[in-house]
Every structure is written in C-alpha cells, then in structure tokens.
Specification:
5 helices, 3 strands, 153 residues, GMP Synthetase, Chain A, domain 3, alpha+beta, 10% strand, 32% helix, MIP18, three-stranded mixed beta sheet, Protein AE7-like 1
Length: 153
C-alpha cells in the first residue's frame, strides 16, 4: 500500500484580485455569494493552496435564495477520484454553520460529472446524520479542524 497524495501535482491558478468592501452594499442584512465566498476561504486538506487557487471553489459556484433561506455550494474536486471530496464538503458545511443561523438550508454538492462517486458524496454531505457521524470520528474531525483553522495560524 502506498501512502501519498492522490493528486501530487494539482493545477494551481492565480488568485483573483478583489476589491475590498468598505460598507454593506445591500443596506440590509442580505446574504450574497461574494460574502459567502469570502467566508469560505480554506486551504485544501492535501495541498498548501486555497480552494480558490485549485479551482475547487469559485464565487460563481455559490447561489443564494434569500427568500427561501437556501444556500447552494457547488465545488469541483481536483480529480475524478479525489479522496478529499467529502472532507472538503464537511469543511465547507462546518465553516458555514458558524456564520449562518439554522434557518438557512445549506446544500453542498460536487459539480455534476466532476467526481466518480458524485451521487454518494452528495448524499453524504447533505444528510444530517451522516455529517454528524463523520464529525464524531476523531481522525476526520482533526482533518476538518486543520483545514478550517490552518489559515488562522
């Protein structure tokens, strides 16, 4: 059994230039995709790059329906057989849980056709019991925590 990265040489993209927001553009407490995107700055669990740099997550992959209280995050794993797809999805879910009240329904999915086990990954990431069970696993929880807090170090 070999230990190592499944995608040892991912394609790294340049970071997008962002204009810093100095005030609330909405005047109310509306949520927009850019706000969520900024919240979801995370490093990839296997690589020293952000999800943005690896094109796993983009502002365009986030949709918000404020009226229905729904947020949809669609991410693209770096390869079809990415073993970190579930971990990335868990990281996104846990990070959003800290920022949004429970009345927001958050769906997290892999982009259609981007993962060999797309249906299985989507089902796991959007089932409360499966998410809770995954986060009770100490090794998996440690990996999620490292991903969430690595940019704070």
């Amino acid at each position: 059994m070999t230990l190592g990265l499944i995608n040892a040489n991912p394609v790294v993209h340049a970071k997008k230039e962002r204009v810093a927001r100095t005030e609330d553009l909405h005047g109310d407490d509306a949520v927009d995709p850019l706000e969520i995107y900024d919240i979801l700055f995370l490093l990839h669990p296997e690589h020293p790059y952000s999800l943005e740099q690896l094109s796993v997550l983009s502002e365009e992959s986030i949709t918000v329906d404020e009226k229905l209280g729904r947020i949809l995050i669609t991410f693209t794993p770096t390869i079809q057989h990415c073993s970190m797809a579930t971990v990335i999805g868990l990281c996104l879910r846990v990070k959003l849980k800290h920022y949004f009240p429970p009345h927001f329904k958050v769906d997290i999915k892999v982009s259609p056709g981007s993962h060999a086990n797309e249906e299985s990954v989507n089902k796991q990431l959007n089932d409360k019991e499966r998410v809770a069970a995954a986060l009770e696993n100490p090794n998996l929880r440690q990996l999620v925590d490292e991903c969430l807090y690595s940019n704070e170090l």
